[in-house]
Amino acid sequence: MSDDRNRWICSHWVESHEERHGKRRVFRHHTHPFPPSRGRFGFELREDGSAQKLMPGSADRPDASRASWTLEGSTLRVSDASGEDVYEVIEIDKDKLVVEAQERT
What is the pLDDT of residues 18-37, one digit of tens each? Predict the structure, then answer.
């Protein structure tokens, strides 16, 4: 991945489930003007390899868990106490991350 792509991946990403197609998932920068929703999955990836995984929670507030992440080639892995999510990065820029979900481990 290019230097820009490596820099862009370290961000707070929120799933745009309206744009989801099968295993292909679209994440937008958290400042994106999303339509109203009862909750959205997301994660914040930090430069030091730490992360925060966000799941829809009670009272329309996200539940956060500590996580870690790695990017090897185009394979993104986000791990927390519940397991590891593996994605193939299809497209990325500063505002949009498109991935294809792989098997959860």
Answer: 999 999 999 999 999 999 88
Q: What is the tally of structural domains in the chain?
A: 1
Whether the CB-CB separation of 42 and 15 falls below 8 Å is answered with yes
CATH of the domain at 8: 2.40.128
For 66, the domain range is 3-101
Contacts 24+ apart (CB under 8 A), 81-86: none
Amino acid identity, position 48:
D
pTM of the model: 0.88
Burial of 13 (0-12, 13-18, 19+ CB in 10 A): buried
